[in-house]
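Raw record, unedited: Citramalate synthase
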Amino acid sequence: MTKERLYIFDTTLRDGAQTAGIEFSLEDKLSIIGLLERIGVDYVEGGYPGANPVDTELFSKSRTKSATFTAFGMTKRAGRSVENDPGVQGLINSAAPATCFVAKAWDHQVELALSSTTDEHLQGLAETVRIAVDNGKEVLIDLEHFFDGYKANRDYALRCAEVALEAGARWVVLCDTNGGTMPGEISEIVSEVCSRVPGDHLGIHAHNDTGQAIANSLAAVEAGVRQVQGTLNGIGERCGNADLITLVPTLVLKSRYADRFELGITSEQLARFTQISRAFDDRLNRAPARQSPYVGASAFATKAGIHASALAKDFSTYEHVEPESVGNVRSIMVSQQAGKSNLLTALARHGIAMDKNDPRLERLLETVKERESRGYSYDGADASFCLLAHEVMGTLPVYFDVESYRASVERRHNARGELVTVTEAVVKIRVGEELLMSVAEGNGPINALDTAMRKDLGKYSHQIEDLELVDFKVRILNGGTGAVTRVLVESRDGTGERWFTIGVSPNIIDASFEALYESISYKLLKTEAAQATTAAE
């Protein structure tokens, strides 16, 4: 039987940006796009071109390699032509090859929010779609409040879907905007819509206000839609959106869907879900939810007792899928093999081959566990994991040693009588037999230490000329006088590669310095590896 194609559309960079307490920088958005492409989503929605400087810069060029980069905005405003509507023109002129326009499918919202009429709104919808199609865009229409609109005025809601399709939209997306629709209602209404609009042109966009965004998305798929929208870890305004980290494994691994549908996500990409989910939480500077389906630390955890005894004989007794399928690990006292499998996968990402029976693998596993008990987390710091693996294996070169460092912050009046804060750092580094001392001022102690450490690395200086510190996040792991601080540093170089390193210490400066040291070490390691590959060729 030929399987039907099911498409995954991610809205993390727009819907997720509406989450209380979350504000994405340009670097955040670029990094998240990289995470999304690693798990194989079909569409990445970036936000509103022109809405703010971050999104204006983001849409100055197409930012994806495999997924379809998508801009978001409104259909034309009432009383304006599409040619003279700056919002529509901004979307058309963006570098994104696809554009998602939002239209109101609830007549009450048309009158209340837009001060317009349903006929005028339908005309504006059609004109917006046509001009975008004429300009070579793949067009999606988000029908906002569709399910409430359907219940209030069925004919108008259905007409919105028909008009969008007739005007040339590739996708018509049915939105449960306030998250209040029940799965049974979703199934009935979507089935009716499919009698007017082919399912391979329909999508579902579910919010989680009743905790049923995933159930509603699955109900819509079974009723006929062939595009599913959601966000990483389910973030979004109010109670969030459908969580793609839970939804996608269900669609791929459960025979009810796997036997009928094909997704553009490979088993290798699915095995990255745990790492991507946790790396995303690290970027948001928050702790991963331990009981998240599939990827949580407790998702495959079983305490000793009858469950553990049963698992030792048959893992399927209490596990609905293999933890390795989503990159997670089994956590029971009777077996550590799953942990080794996970490490082998992580090592392979760095081109490190190791046999599962190699005693160094057991040593690495124990080292990771011990360090994680002290606050380290390697899911979001892959470069630090690479260095740790080489260290345990005895293959990590010692490029330089830091003999000492000092950072001082002074608040004083300058020559003009202005109150200023001056930060100075001194770093002593030994490269081979050569002792080097560098002094630098910076915008805070971390910047000063980073500048001083990279100021003079002797024979390695030329190898780090293009190294740049991109982002710096601090998280307090526990409170009180014995608080432990975790620092995550993001770096990049001239090749465009980005990497993350981690430092943990009760002292924030010490934790930061550790992460900076590892960033430079990783840069040198990968530079020498690239040179060795070039020489071999």
